[in-house]
Amino acid sequence: MGSLEVEFHARLAGTPRVHWLGFRRDVPAIMKALDVLVVPSHYEGFGLVAGGGWRPEPPSLPAA
Questions:
Q1: Burial class, 53, CB count within 10 angstroms (exposed 0-12 / middle 13-18 / buried 19+)
Q2: CA 52 to chain centre
Q3: What pLDDT does residue 50 have?
Q4: What pLDDT, on the 0 to 100 scale, is given for residue 19?
Q5: Residue 38 located in a structural domain
Q6: Beta strands in 1-64 (DSSP E)
Q7: Domain-located, residue 54
Q8: The pTM is what?
Q9: Does residue 61 lie in a domain region?
Q10: C-alpha dist (Å) from residue 1 to 19, 47, 48, 53, 64
Q11: How much is the pLDDT for 22?
Q12: Among 27, 29, 33, 34, which is disulfide-ready with 58 (CB 3.0 to 4.6 Å)?
């Protein structure tokens, strides 16, 4: 676990709407079930998650 991940886990511990899923093989099914995909990033101009979510459903909201 990297230092940013440790910080995020500490900050968001107990937050009811944050779920740490870890490595998943069923990502397409998870993304299809989302109402909206939010991808905040300070380090990636265009990340793989944003690219995977770039389709009509769910709406994607990339943010910098």
A1: buried
A2: 11
A3: 64
A4: 81
A5: yes
A6: 37-40, 60-63
A7: yes
A8: 0.44
A9: yes
A10: 16, 19, 19, 25, 23
A11: 82
A12: 34
